[in-house]
Write a structure and sequence with these properties.
mainly alpha, two-stranded antiparallel ribbon, 13 helices
């Protein structure tokens, strides 16, 4: 296996790890499709950030995407909670509205900017090894790989430091509210992380694989474990396996690498579904205790 293949698999594995960790919280909140909504709703934020900064650098683009993703979450929550719309209708309306704004902005100002929706939303992981970072003319590897390493450090740090509050607002929001913990704040904090991960993964793997990792990996892990911490680790492991097998599947059929990885995620899910239904098998049958009466306020 050549160096390029190693970088491709490593980059995909980082995307999978980020998506699996945050996606585990989304699936327990029954909000998995928010990842799909955010993957489209971030487009106007990216375009506006480009206009303001005049650059496609990761920092301003990520900031704009995060703001746009949080706005999408706000719209969905407002329509669902305040306007009493069904959640699926709220998601569909909000993300198509924001995505359409982004497309219009790109179309209207298309002559003045080097940016298009295909570039933003549909990356190609096979080319990830071509864009390298250099320090003193020494290559340290693909730029996207190191960006995703930083992203993983942020995600792991965020979950590690605020794990109990995230878990409590996910599994028992009523009890969290009784302790004075802001449910809305932690929802938006989680959505900010989802937005950041989504946009930082676009250029490398594209929207389809990002959404596949966010939805498929935790859904598969959920079938295999009742322990939430175990579920997160299993989801990350499944993502690494899908990255490796997906690359070799793509090489075998001479097809899309991201598409092949998404196919492997789907196969993992159906295998886990068959095992859990036919064999009644789960790795850890006990539930994790998540309620901590000593938790403070936000």
């Amino acid at each position: 296996m050549d160096t390029g293949a190693i970088w491709i698999i490593a980059t995909a594995s980082l995307v999978a790890a980020n998506a699996a960790i945050l996606g585990s919280f989304l699936i327990m909140r029954k909000m998995t499709m928010l990842a799909d909504a955010i993957s489209h709703a971030v487009l106007p934020g990216i375009v506006i950030a480009y206009f303001i900064s005049g650059s496609r650098a990761s920092l301003p683009v990520s900031a704009g995407a995060a703001v746009s993703g949080i706005l999408a979450t706000f719209l969905i929550q407002t329509l669902t909670k305040k306007m009493k719309m069904q959640e699926d209708a709220s998601i569909g309306l909000s993300f198509t509205f924001l995505f359409a704004i982004g497309v219009v902005l790109i179309s209207y100002f298309g002559k003045d900017i080097d940016l298009d929706q295909d570039c933003v939303l549909y990356g190609e992981i096979a080319y990830v090894a071509l864009d390298v970072w250099k320090i003193n003319d020494v290559s340290i590897g693909p730029r996207q790989f190191w960006i995703l390493v930083i992203n993983l450090i942020i995600v792991v740090g965020f979950v590690y430091l605020f794990y109990q509050r995230l878990v409590l607002t996910t599994f028992d929001p009523a009890y969290a509210a009784s302790l004075g913990i802001s449910i809305v704040f932690w929802l938006y904090a989680l959505m900010g992380g989802v937005s950041l991960t989504t946009v930082l993964s676009f250029e490398a793997v594209g929207a389809i694989l990002v959404v596949g990792f966010f939805a498929g990996l935790p859904a598969t892990a959920y079938l295999l474990s009742n322990n939430f911490k175990q579920m997160i680790f299993i989801a990350v492991g499944l993502g690494v396996v899908a990255s490796i097998l997906g690359y070799f599947l793509a090489a075998w059929v001479n097809g899309s690498v991201a598409g092949a990885m998404s196919v492997i995620v789907g196969i993992e899910f159906f295998v886990a579904l068959a095992v859990s239904k036919l064999g009644k098998f789960r790795i850890q049958p006990n539930h994790e205790k998540v309620i901590k009466p000593t938790l403070g306020k936000t």
